[in-house]
Amino acid sequence: MKRKGALAAALGLPPLLALWAFVVEPASLEVNRHELTLPLWPPGQDGLVIALLSDLHVGSPFNGTGKLEKIVARVNQARPHVVLLAGDYMTSGVRGGELVPPETTASLLARIEAPLGVFAVLGNHDHWYDGPRVRRAFESAGIRVLQNESVRVQGKGFDFRLVGIGDLWEEQPDVGAILEGLPEEVPAIAFTHNPDLFPVITDRVALTLAGHTHGGQVDFPLLGAPVVPSRFGERYARGHVVEDGRHLFVTSGLGTSILPVRFRVPPEIAILRIVSAVSSPPPAELARFRSRWSSSKTSAPAPRPQPARSSPG
Questions:
Q1: pLDDT at 313
Q2: How many CB atoms lie within 10 A of CB 181?
Q3: pLDDT value at position 54?
Q4: Cβ count near 196 (within 10 Å)
Q5: Strand 48-53 to strand 30-38: parallel, antiparallel, or no bridges (unpaired)?
Q6: What is the C-alpha separation between 121 and 123, in angstroms, rounded?
Q7: 3-class state of residue 91 by DSSP
Q8: In sequence order, which ranges of 20-64 are alpha helices (DSSP H)?
Q9: What is the spatial distance between Cα 46 and Cα 38, in angstroms, rounded to a whole number?
Q10: Residue 143: phi, psi to the nearest 5?
Q11: Which of 71, 76, 148, 298 is the most buried (most CB within 10 A)?
């Protein structure tokens, strides 16, 4: 009897895992909160809350407009100061998906409430569909699209520069030129779709944010993610990455691509609370800190070679 029970359990496990990976987890939604301590974030601006959303792929299985309405509601419940949309709003080629026009997606995302604003960049799937149309749809809905440009964000006791960098695959942005003209009196946060740009982001930027990888969509115990759309493999697959004092955060995203599957990488809204690595000093010390901060080095390390494992993100 024990052998029969064990055999039945073994035979029943694959269907249960398939149900979880192709139905339950892709349909789920997590709000994951992280506190990031940054050496280049100035004292006195602790507590900035950023909601980071990426790879919505609206129209992918279990990820239609109803799910997007739920995402918007959960973001508003988190009450972030600023919301950053890191690209890939469109879906294409995923089995079981359907096309949702960018105008529909933009109209729903326009319901997001954030006192410092909602900003977007485009991803590779948006360009593959129709990049100019996606941009027009978002801007018509009141969402600012930053395409290799920066804007100063002020309010609620915060003052920083937000830099939107174009998609690596489709725009091949000149990151050095984009960052070169940044004023030094305020800190800078950069966001882009593809995290493979991180090695050339200078330490003038306090934090870089990205998506694209979906966290691999599948993460096997002990084995990790078998497929990550990055030339650096799992190095920038998801989460908080620190290299040579520079900080990157990659969200695992909300939709699916290629196959409608997620396993141990659930769809997420990333809520990031930013704090300074330097405790708040007296005014005279604060002035000296700002002077040191504004004169930070601007050289970026060369990327270290990693095994390439990629597929369209």
A1: 59
A2: 7
A3: 98
A4: 21
A5: unpaired
A6: 7
A7: coil
A8: 25-27
A9: 10
A10: -100, 120
A11: 71
C-alpha dihedral (244, 248, 249, 253), degrees to nearest 10: -130
Burial class (CB in 10 A: 0-12, 13-18, 19+), 75: buried
> What is the DSSP pairing of strand 48-53 with strand 268-276?
antiparallel
Q: Cα separation of 293 and 283, whole Å?
A: 15
Query: CA distances (Å), 100 to each of 90, 124, 145, in order?
Result: 7, 16, 19
Q: Are strands 246-250 and 158-165 parallel, antiparallel or unpaired?
A: unpaired
Tokens for 111?
Answer: 């319901």
Distances (CA, A) of 42 to 154, 185, 202: 14, 10, 17
In the chain, alpha helices (H): 2-19, 25-27, 65-78, 102-109, 124-140, 168-171, 175-180, 283-294
How far is residue 311's CA from residue 257's CA, in Å, rounded to a whole number? 10
| Residue 291: strand, helix, or coil | helix
Helix pair angle (102-109, 65-78), 10° resolution: 20
pLDDT tens by residue, the chain, 313 residues: 555 444 334 445 677 888 878 889 999 999 999 999 999 999 899 999 999 999 999 999 999 999 999 999 999 999 999 999 999 999 976 677 889 999 999 999 999 999 999 999 999 999 999 999 999 999 999 999 999 999 999 999 999 999 999 999 999 999 999 999 888 889 999 999 999 999 999 989 999 999 999 999 998 898 888 889 999 999 999 999 999 999 999 999 999 988 889 999 999 999 999 999 986 554 454 454 445 444 443 333 344 434 333 344 5
- 152: three-class secondary structure by DSSP: strand
Query: CB 25: neighbour CB atoms within 10 A?
Result: 21
Burial class, 136, CB count within 10 angstroms (exposed 0-12 / middle 13-18 / buried 19+): middle
pLDDT score of 4: 47
